[in-house]
Amino acid sequence: MSEPTTLHVGGASPYDVVIGHGLADRLPGLLGEGVERVALLFAGDLNELARPVLDALVAEYDVLALGLPDGENAKTSSVANDCWEALGEAGFTRSDAVVTFGGGATTDLGGFVAASWLRGVKVVHVPTTVLAMVDAAVGGKTGINTGAGKNLVGAFHEPSGVLCDLALLDGLPVEEVRAGLGEIIKCGFIADPAILTLVENDPAAAQETGSAVLRELVTRAIQVKIDVVVDDLKETGGRDGHPGREVLNYGHTLAHAIERATDYRIRHGEAVAIGCVFVAEVARRSGLIADELADRHARLFGAVGLPVGFDGDWDELLETMKVDKKSRGSQLRLVVLHDLADPRILAGPAEDLLRASYAALSGGA
């Protein structure tokens, strides 16, 4: 097995993202000095998979293991409150730490617990899905859901490190791998076209958990996110027309609305694929991109088995999009392409444009 790859995240709170196989023994180094207690927050169905991480922690620290509900069911205020109460009962101080082990929902919830406990304690993320590796674990965004929408309550809280142990992907259902590819392919369109070429050349290898192709795709997508967040951690804006961190929301405005409309039964990466095809259609109909680039979206997401259409009620989806956290006041903002790897903001798009663009893809799920 090849040596681990380490990607450094600079900025005010620098940390490393380590990508490789069998990385549990690196946890103490990422947690740093002075930690006595560690809360391991893990998805409830990952007990055996978490064993190497738990063993590595128990050898060094007093460990509080907290099982969480699966998926988006973990991202609620009541689950966060249960975690806070457990930390309080165990006497966790500001020098102690949290380790998350699971998919993106576990990472989001665990990161928020770490951000809010005593106004911030250390957290190290050990993502167990492709999606969590390339999306939730890197960049310091944490959050929980409310009845009004996804991730509307949260905080920026950068981790002390991220361990992307590719061995944890063995046995991952292909649907989960594909969901991760939704975010990876997104990164290809907004920043790194080499990602698109890798997928186009071998879409089957892109879906194989042990393949060199998937490892390169994961590494490239993480690097895209690092480059963006180092320059604009708190999504205050980019330079020279670039959307800054907001670019990572490519396709997400509709995606989050679809997730809510389906009560999160559709996977995040699947919804992102649909959302990216939608904004590509918006850009096409706005005269911003050529047909080939717009069509490449549906072709590429479809090549790895991701959906490229949705049959939900447009008016309901639009109302949810209007309260998306990326909106400004009553104005909807979409990240669109002006060319491959040339993303910009389209502010206040006309509703008839949005409706026509959605109609062009609805029914293609």
Automatic annotation (TrEMBL):
Q: Please give the Gene Ontology molecular function terms for this protein.
A: 3-dehydroquinate synthase activity; metal ion binding; nucleotide binding
Q: Which UniProt keywords apply?
A: Amino-acid biosynthesis, Aromatic amino acid biosynthesis, Cobalt, Cytoplasm, Lyase, Metal-binding, NAD, Nucleotide-binding, Zinc
GO biological-process terms attached to the record? amino acid biosynthetic process; aromatic amino acid family biosynthetic process; chorismate biosynthetic process
Catalytic reactions of this protein:
7-phospho-2-dehydro-3-deoxy-D-arabino-heptonate = 3-dehydroquinate + phosphate
Annotated 3-dehydroquinate synthase C-terminal domain residues: 180-327
Provide the cofactor note recorded for this chain's UniProt entry: Binds 1 divalent metal cation per subunit. Can use either Co(2+) or Zn(2+).
Major location (coarse)? cytoplasm
List localization entries.
Answer: Cytoplasm
Name the InterPro entries for this protein.
Answer: Dehydroquinate_synthase, DHQ_synth_AroB, DHQ_synth_fam, DHQS/DOIS_N, DHQS_C
Q: Write out the residues that bind NAD(+).
A: 70-75, 104-108, 128-129, 141, 150
Q: Which residues form the 3-dehydroquinate synthase N-terminal domain?
A: 68-178
Q: Which residues of this UniProt protein bind Zn(2+)?
A: E183, H252, H268
Name the GO cellular-component terms: cytoplasm
| Names of required cofactors | NAD(+); Co(2+); Zn(2+)
Question: In which pathway is this protein known to take part?
Answer: Metabolic intermediate biosynthesis; chorismate biosynthesis; chorismate from D-erythrose 4-phosphate and phosphoenolpyruvate: step 2/7
Key word Lyase present: yes
Tell me its EC number(s), please. 4.2.3.4
What does the UniProt record say this protein does? Catalyzes the conversion of 3-deoxy-D-arabino-heptulosonate 7-phosphate (DAHP) to dehydroquinate (DHQ).
Q: Which family does it belong to?
A: Belongs to the sugar phosphate cyclases superfamily. Dehydroquinate synthase family.
Q: Which PANTHER family does the UniProt record give?
A: 3-DEHYDROQUINATE SYNTHASE, 3-DEHYDROQUINATE SYNTHASE, CHLOROPLASTIC
Q: What is this protein called?
A: 3-dehydroquinate synthase
The organism is Nocardioides daedukensis
